[in-house]
Protein backbone atom coordinates (compact mmCIF):
# COMPACT_ATOMS: atom_id res chain seq x y z
CA UNK A 1 0.00 0.00 0.00
CA UNK A 2 1.82 3.11 -1.26
CA UNK A 3 0.74 5.55 1.46
CA UNK A 4 1.37 3.18 4.38
CA UNK A 5 4.31 4.04 6.67
CA UNK A 6 5.13 0.42 7.49
CA UNK A 7 4.86 -0.70 3.82
CA UNK A 8 7.48 1.99 3.09
CA UNK A 9 9.75 0.29 5.63
CA UNK A 10 9.20 -3.06 3.93
CA UNK A 11 10.00 -1.58 0.50
CA UNK A 12 13.06 0.26 1.83
CA UNK A 13 11.71 3.73 1.01
CA UNK A 14 12.13 4.46 4.74
CA UNK A 15 14.97 2.71 6.58
CA UNK A 16 13.92 1.43 10.00
CA UNK A 17 16.26 0.46 12.85
CA UNK A 18 15.93 -3.20 11.92
CA UNK A 19 16.35 -6.00 14.46
CA UNK A 20 15.02 -8.99 12.48
CA UNK A 21 13.93 -9.88 8.96
CA UNK A 22 12.87 -13.01 7.10
CA UNK A 23 10.82 -13.69 3.97
CA UNK A 24 7.51 -12.80 5.63
CA UNK A 25 8.27 -10.61 8.64
CA UNK A 26 10.17 -7.41 9.45
CA UNK A 27 10.94 -6.12 12.96
CA UNK A 28 12.39 -2.76 13.96
CA UNK A 29 12.75 -0.51 17.01
CA UNK A 30 9.81 1.75 17.87
CA UNK A 31 10.59 5.44 17.32
CA UNK A 32 8.98 6.28 20.68
CA UNK A 33 9.98 3.40 22.94
CA UNK A 34 7.81 2.63 25.98
CA UNK A 35 10.35 0.23 27.49
CA UNK A 36 14.13 -0.30 27.21
CA UNK A 37 13.35 -2.77 24.41
CA UNK A 38 10.37 -1.81 22.24
CA UNK A 39 10.24 -3.59 18.90
CA UNK A 40 7.47 -3.61 16.30
CA UNK A 41 6.99 -6.87 14.40
CA UNK A 42 5.08 -6.57 11.13
CA UNK A 43 4.08 -8.83 8.25
CA UNK A 44 5.58 -7.74 4.93
CA UNK A 45 2.14 -7.83 3.33
CA UNK A 46 -0.30 -5.05 4.16
CA UNK A 47 -3.05 -6.04 6.59
CA UNK A 48 -4.74 -3.01 8.18
CA UNK A 49 -6.05 -4.37 11.47
CA UNK A 50 -6.79 -7.62 13.27
CA UNK A 51 -10.31 -7.29 11.85
CA UNK A 52 -8.85 -8.04 8.40
CA UNK A 53 -7.24 -11.31 9.51
CA UNK A 54 -8.66 -14.33 7.66
CA UNK A 55 -7.87 -17.97 6.89
CA UNK A 56 -5.60 -16.96 4.01
CA UNK A 57 -3.27 -14.76 6.07
CA UNK A 58 -3.68 -16.15 9.62
CA UNK A 59 -0.45 -18.18 9.43
CA UNK A 60 1.46 -14.88 9.37
CA UNK A 61 0.59 -14.39 13.04
CA UNK A 62 2.48 -17.57 13.89
CA UNK A 63 5.44 -16.35 11.87
CA UNK A 64 5.34 -13.01 13.71
CA UNK A 65 5.48 -14.88 17.04
CA UNK A 66 8.38 -17.03 15.83
CA UNK A 67 10.14 -13.73 15.08
CA UNK A 68 9.38 -12.56 18.64
CA UNK A 69 10.97 -15.72 19.98
CA UNK A 70 14.09 -15.18 17.87
CA UNK A 71 14.30 -11.50 18.89
CA UNK A 72 13.89 -12.36 22.59
CA UNK A 73 16.93 -14.63 22.38
CA UNK A 74 18.87 -12.18 20.22
CA UNK A 75 18.18 -9.25 22.57
CA UNK A 76 18.72 -11.27 25.75
CA UNK A 77 15.22 -10.90 27.22
CA UNK A 78 13.84 -14.43 26.83
CA UNK A 79 14.48 -15.45 30.42
CA UNK A 80 13.59 -12.13 32.04
CA UNK A 81 10.41 -11.96 29.99
CA UNK A 82 8.54 -9.55 27.81
CA UNK A 83 5.05 -8.53 26.70
CA UNK A 84 3.44 -8.61 23.27
CA UNK A 85 0.48 -6.38 22.37
CA UNK A 86 -1.57 -5.85 19.23
CA UNK A 87 -3.71 -2.72 19.31
CA UNK A 88 -6.85 -2.64 17.16
CA UNK A 89 -8.72 0.47 16.03
CA UNK A 90 -9.79 3.41 18.22
CA UNK A 91 -10.39 1.79 21.59
CA UNK A 92 -7.31 -0.39 21.23
CA UNK A 93 -5.20 2.71 20.58
CA UNK A 94 -4.08 1.76 17.06
CA UNK A 95 -2.45 4.66 15.22
CA UNK A 96 -0.66 2.93 12.33
CA UNK A 97 -3.03 0.87 10.19
CA UNK A 98 -0.65 -1.90 9.11
CA UNK A 99 -0.96 -4.70 11.63
CA UNK A 100 1.96 -4.83 14.08
CA UNK A 101 2.87 -6.59 17.25
CA UNK A 102 4.54 -4.54 20.00
CA UNK A 103 7.25 -6.39 21.90
CA UNK A 104 8.15 -4.69 25.18
CA UNK A 105 10.90 -5.75 27.58
CA UNK A 106 13.61 -4.54 29.90
CA UNK A 107 11.49 -3.31 32.82
CA UNK A 108 8.66 -4.61 34.99
CA UNK A 109 5.40 -3.94 33.13
CA UNK A 110 2.17 -3.02 34.92
CA UNK A 111 -1.08 -4.98 34.64
CA UNK A 112 -3.75 -4.10 33.72
CA UNK A 113 -2.52 -1.67 31.05
CA UNK A 114 -4.05 1.81 30.99
P1 LIG B 1 -0.05 1.64 17.49
O1 LIG B 1 -0.42 2.84 18.32
O2 LIG B 1 -0.65 1.72 16.10
O3 LIG B 1 -0.35 0.31 18.16
O4 LIG B 1 1.52 1.67 17.36
C1 LIG B 1 2.18 2.41 16.39
C2 LIG B 1 3.60 2.53 16.84
O5 LIG B 1 4.38 2.97 15.75
C3 LIG B 1 3.81 3.53 17.98
O6 LIG B 1 4.38 2.87 19.11
C4 LIG B 1 4.75 4.58 17.37
O7 LIG B 1 5.69 5.07 18.28
C5 LIG B 1 5.39 3.81 16.24
N1 LIG B 1 5.82 4.64 15.12
C6 LIG B 1 5.11 5.64 14.53
N2 LIG B 1 5.83 6.18 13.53
C7 LIG B 1 7.01 5.50 13.50
C8 LIG B 1 8.17 5.61 12.67
O8 LIG B 1 8.26 6.43 11.75
N3 LIG B 1 9.18 4.75 12.94
C9 LIG B 1 9.12 3.82 13.95
N4 LIG B 1 10.17 3.03 14.11
N5 LIG B 1 8.04 3.69 14.73
C10 LIG B 1 7.00 4.52 14.50
ZN1 LIG C 1 1.14 -1.30 5.01
Name a few traits of the molecule.
114 residues; alpha+beta; 22% strand; binds zinc ion; binds guanosine-5'-monophosphate; 5-stranded antiparallel β-sheet; HIT family, subunit A
Overview in brief:
The protein has 114 residues and is an alpha+beta fold.
Written overview of the protein:
This protein has a single domain, classed as HIT family, subunit A (2-Layer Sandwich). Helix content is 25%, strand content 22%. The protein contains three helices and five strands, in the order H-E-E-E-H-E-H-E. A five-stranded antiparallel β-sheet has the order 1-2-3-5-4, with helices on one face. The longest helix has 17 residues. It is globular and about 35 Å long. The site of zinc ion has 6 residues, from helix 1.
Number of helices: 3
N-to-C SSE series? HEEEHEHE
Estimate what percentage of residues fall within beta strands: 15-25%
Structural class: alpha+beta
The gross shape turns out to be globular
Helical proportion, percent range: 10-25%
Query: How many discrete domains?
Result: 1
Enumerate the distinct ligands. guanosine-5'-monophosphate, zinc ion
CATH superfamily: HIT-like
Main sheet summary: 5 strands, antiparallel
CATH domain fold name:
HIT family, subunit A
What strand line-up does the widest sheet have?
1-2-3-5-4
CATH architecture: 2-Layer Sandwich
Mean pLDDT: 97
End-to-end separation in angstroms reads 31 Å
Secondary structure: number of strands: 5
Uncertain stretches of 5 or more adjacent residues: none
Rg from Cα: 14 Å
What is the C-level CATH assignment?
Alpha Beta
Amino acid sequence: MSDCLFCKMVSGEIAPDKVYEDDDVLAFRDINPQAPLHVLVIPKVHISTLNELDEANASLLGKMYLAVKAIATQEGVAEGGFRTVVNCNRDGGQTVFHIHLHMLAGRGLQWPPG
